[in-house]
Structure formats: structure tokens, C-alpha cells
Design a protein that fits this description.
With 281 residues, the chain is mostly helical. It has one domain. The chain contains 11 helices and 5 strands, in the order βααβαβββαααααααα. The strands form 2 sheets. A 3-stranded mixed beta sheet has the order 2-4-3, with helices on one face. A two-stranded antiparallel ribbon has the order 1-5.
């Protein structure tokens, strides 16, 4: 694992925009590069490498429940014949290019060949699915998650914020390691701007803990306190609809109302952000 040591108080925290340590080189540095089933180990190396989410991924990947089989990346040419029946509908969800999905029960990624390829997908698409694979729940239970087991974060906040957060994490991991993004077929670009605003407002730590460890109650409580009970649902709905501008406008409106409320009742502080001690716990 490539895990940062905890910096002293006030020290700079390595993350997005920082050059990777000179001792680390990603095994693949182009997001559009074709990858096949033998490249699964490279996905794990990249996710474990330096990024703003490294401490969360390291903890998730260290969980025995997140162990993946040797052939966890599967490239399939026939969804009907090579993908479990309960997952087949995921390949037609949302329109556009839906090239992959995961099975939490077997910890397997199923990916169709990406456009222009015969038996491979693109690194960026595969990384996106690998991030999904380490989201909560790591060990789904029959009573808590249905056969089609969607991550806790996405089940709570909807497809737009769920897929958007997955893609933001993917992009930030790639950026931190100098891996270029694929310039074509970007199915999640409508979802990422609202997510980046939510991370900016409610902190990366709060969002990451909700995503990787299922602590959605803390994030929901923060949004309810700051924006009003359930007001985030409008942002979630607009994001899932792919209406990026309206989602961003709604966030701007909710933030303006929050500032106005603070001004009316005087400076009584904001929703408490996680301390640095908690961030590195």
C-alpha cells in the first residue's frame, strides 16, 4: 500500500494537484489506454496509490470483506450469456454508453468492450467501476441489501450523486498520479460538477466517509442543517436528470439562503467540520 503518514498539525496534506512521490509510478498513465482482464492488478495498484482519497481507500482495501478474486475484471461480449441475470439491466440504465457494472456479492466487475475495442475496456472506465467495488457495503448481507446491491451512498442520494461521486474520486485519483483522462465518451460529466460543490461545502472527509464506509447519516445531517430538511433531494433529483445547470443553481440558492439565515441570527458558527484528528483516524 502507498499510505501517507499523518502530517503534523498545520503541515501540508498531499493530495490533488501535488506531484506523486518520486518513488511511485502508476503502472498505466493514460486513461484511454485499453485494459483487459489481466490488468485487474493495475487497477488495485492505482487505487492504493497517492490521491486525496488514499487514506479511505487504504482502509477499505485492508478490509477482509473487500478481497477480490484473481479474475475480478471480466470483459464480456454477451451480456445475456456472460453476466448474471440480476445485473443485465444495469447495462441499459440511463441511456448512452453504459459499459460496465459490478457484482458486490462476488466482488466482480463486468465490462463490455469499450467503443472502438474488441476485448478491452478503457482504463478510466475500469477505474470507475473499481471505485464502486470498494464503496460501502463491502460485505452485503441478504437482509440489508437486495440481490441487485447498489452502494449505500448511491441508494441514499440517487444515481446522479452516486455516479458523480464515483467519477470525482476516479478523476482525483488519476489527476494525483498524472494519469490523463480519456477525451471521448464521458458519460458522467453531467454529474460531477454538483458533487464537487457538495465536497467543497461539506468537506471531502464527510463525503468520503459516507461513500466508503456508509456514514450517510453524518452527511445527511450536515445537509439538512445547512440547507433545510431534505432540501438536498432537489439537488439529487436534478443531478440524476443530468440537468447540471439547474442543480448548480439550486446549490447556489440553498447556500445564499444559508448565509441569510446566519446573518439574521448572528454568528453562531457553522455545522462542525471533522477535526484533523478524526480525518486521519
Amino acid at each position: 500500500m502507498f499510505v501517507w503518514t499523518n502530517p503534523p498539525p498545520g503541515a501540508h496534506r498531499p493530495g490533488l494537484g501535488d506531484p506523486p512521490p518520486s518513488s511511485y509510478k502508476p503502472p498505466i498513465n493514460k486513461g484511454g489506454q485499453p485494459v483487459d482482464e489481466k490488468d485487474g492488478k493495475h487497477l488495485l495498484t492505482i487505487l492504493a496509490g497517492p490521491s486525496p482519497y488514499q487514506i479511505y481507500l487504504a482502509r477499505a482495501m485492508a478490509n477482509a470483506a473487500t478481497t477480490v478474486p484473481g479474475n475480478f475484471l471480466r470483459i464480456v461480449t454477451s451480456v445475456k450469456n456472460q453476466v448474471p441475470r440480476h445485473l443485465q439491466g444495469m447495462f441499459t440504465q440511463g441511456g448512452g454508453f453504459t459499459g460496465a457494472t459490478i457484482d458486490r456479492w462476488t466482488r466482480t466487475i463486468y465490462a463490455q468492450p469499450a467503443p472502438g475495442l474488441r476485448m478491452e475496456t478503457r482504463l478510466e472506465y475500469a477505474l470507475h467501476e473499481a471505485v464502486h467495488l470498494f464503496a460501502d457495503p463491502h460485505a452485503p448481507a441478504a437482509r440489508s441489501c437486495p440481490t441487485l446491491c447498489i452502494g449505500t451512498f448511491q441508494r441514499t442520494y440517487g444515481r446522479g450523486l452516486g455516479e458523480g461521486t464515483t467519477q470525482v474520486i476516479t478523476e482525483d485519483v488519476m489527476d494525483a498520479q498524472g494519469i490523463s483522462r480519456y477525451y471521448r465518451d464521458r458519460p458522467y460529466d453531467a454529474f460531477t460538477p454538483p458533487v464537487r460543490e457538495i465536497i467543497k461545502i461539506f468537506t471531502l472527509d464527510t463525503v468520503a466517509r459516507a461513500y466508503f464506509f456508509g456514514d450517510v447519516n453524518t452527511l445527511t445531517a450536515a445537509m439538512d442543517w445547512r440547507w433545510g430538511p431534505d432540501a438536498w433531494r432537489v439537488v439529487a433529483r436534478l443531478t440524476s436528470q443530468g440537468d447540471t445547470k439547474k442543480a448548480l443553481d439550486e446549490i447556489k440558492k440553498l447556500e445564499a439562503a444559508h448565509v441569510q439565515r446566519l446573518q439574521l441570527r448572528g454568528p453562531k458558527g457553522d455545522f462542525p467540520s471533522p477535526s484533523r484528528t478524526r480525518m486521519y483516524a
